[in-house]
Amino acid sequence: MKDILLIALFAFLGAAAAGLLGAGVLRLLRHRSLVVSLSVVAGVAVMAMLAGTLTVAWAMFLSSHDLYVVTTVVAMAALVSLATAVLLGRWVAAHSRELTLATRSFGDGGTFAAPAGQPTAELAELARELAATSAKLDSSRERERALEASRRELVAWISHDLRTPLAGLRAMAEALEDGMAADSGRYLRQIRTEVERMNGMVGDLFELSRIQAGSLTLTPARISLHDLVGEALAGVDPLAREHRVRLVGDRIDEAPVEVDGKEMSRVLGNLLINAIRRTPPDGTVAVAAHRSDGGVVLSVTDGCGGIPEEDLTRVFDTGWRGSHARTPPAGAGLGLAIVRGIVEAHAGRAEVRNVQGGCCFSVTLPAA
Q1: Is the pTM higher than 0.90?
Q2: 187 CB contacts (<8 Å, ≥6 apart)?
């Protein structure tokens, strides 16, 4: 038993010395190629075995012939191990370079295509993660392009919509100044109408900029759905009468919500105004509210005839108007973008879907 312990001790000391030497070499070569690192690891393993074997052989006073035989066997094992390590290292390094080139392509704006046949599970997992990241980047680039196009479209529309009333205001002001206005009262009423419209557009722009900058401050309070919907319906009733549209709001569940009353009134107001303006005379705009598994759902259903399927995903984009009309009722395309921003600030979501004869805008809010 004592001899076995001595043999184990001598073998451990020899192997430990080789291991420490190999660790030092690995540290010096840690920034080199994977092939070099694998060769060092294989060499350390063989050298540890050789050092332990030689230490035990010397301690056992083997003959020179036996020592030569042992050394030759270990040397052959070292040669095969090093060759295997070099081949494996070159194989892994080659696939790593392919992965690097593929990664560089999607970093420059392309799409990542994973090389076929990854040699290790780790590289295969890395390729899958890079493919997922590439898909996210593609989606992000697409959203960025869509947002940039939306911003450009918005700037063009706002510039047009502001220039038109300004030109009219200038003409009416010059007519009043020169005493050429036959009906000055009508001119003054028209000026006031145009100023109010411009003020609304500027207010919408300011509100949207606050939402997009993340500076919208909410003051949540517990509010009854009946009160929230009732105030919104009362606010748009004159517009509905003017357009001969019937308002219906008799399907409201008894459910409180924790929201900013002013901002949510704006949400409902924007949805109702859009619905009334898009619904033909003698049509109906219905408001409903009910509990669901996801919270409280407020919906506004109109009779606009529906939205084209290709436009459903763009409805809440900044600047979207549903048509290329430049008439005042078309608005600046900010109302629905403001709706989505306010709802998302309340940790909710805004959606739209087509229904028979029109479309339904729904707002889902967390239950109080």
Answers
A1: no
A2: 172, 175, 176, 181
Both tokens of 221, joined, read 């309070």
CA distance 197 to 191: 10
Are the C-beta atoms of residues 301 and 283 closer than 8 Å to each other?
no
The reported pLDDT for the residue numbered 335 is: 81
Beta bridge mates, 246 = 284
Q: Return the amino acid letter for 10.
A: F
Determine the 3-state secondary structure of 255 from DSSP. Answer: coil
pLDDT digits (tens, 9 = 90+) for 253-311: 877 888 888 888 889 988 999 899 889 998 999 999 888 877 889 999 998 888 888 88
- Cα 25 from Cα 133, distance rounded (Å): 36
Does 355 or 137 have the greater pLDDT score? 355
In angstroms, the CA 261 to CA 156 distance is: 33
- Residue 346, phi-psi category: left (phi > 0), alpha (psi -120 to 50), beta (remainder): alpha
Cβ-contact 50, 17 below 8 angstroms: no
* Rounded Cα distance, 313 and 240, in Å: 27
Q: Do the beta carbons of residue 255 and residue 291 sit within 8 Å?
A: yes
Counts for the chain of helices (H) and strands (E), in that order: 8, 7
